[in-house]
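Changelog-adjacent note: as of this version, every example in the card shows the full chain rather than a window. The one below runs 165 residues end to end.
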Amino acid sequence: MISCSKDGESLVDPDALTDHEIIAHSNNRVSSLLMTKNEYKNWVDNDEFTNSEKRTSLTNDIYKKYADKYDFIFFILNEPSIPENLSYYGKLIGVSNNVEGTGQGIYDYSTQYGSSGKLKAIMQLTGLEYLRGGPALHELAHNWANFGIDSHYIDGPGNNISSFN
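Full-length structure tokens:
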């Protein structure tokens, strides 16, 4: 989790008991979720980001330690590139939306994630460098930009895309 807050006051209970180990950097602006090797392997091999029970368990732990003042939470895999069994650079899962006119409905699942309404979406990026590059911005855009007009589905990354033919 990266805080855009210059004061770093988002950490509300550093000693809260959680199911997952979450370590804050000394500046309180970056945090790491530490998983055992087996837990991380399962997370990647089974694409557990798509498992709502696993996802909400992690975010509920985050809210035990951090204030509900973030619109987005990113999970970034500790990988140089996309793991072989995953087929995406990034994935956004909507948590709440109260904006009309974007082509998507109004919804709020924030309490399931431990948020009291601030959280808009959570994302997983499948490589370490994807926060600074296109995948992060692309996933953020999905929160608002991909629902206003009909679009085509592309079934995978690459330059030889035939699904538009």
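Structural remarks: DSSP finds three helices and seven strands in the chain.
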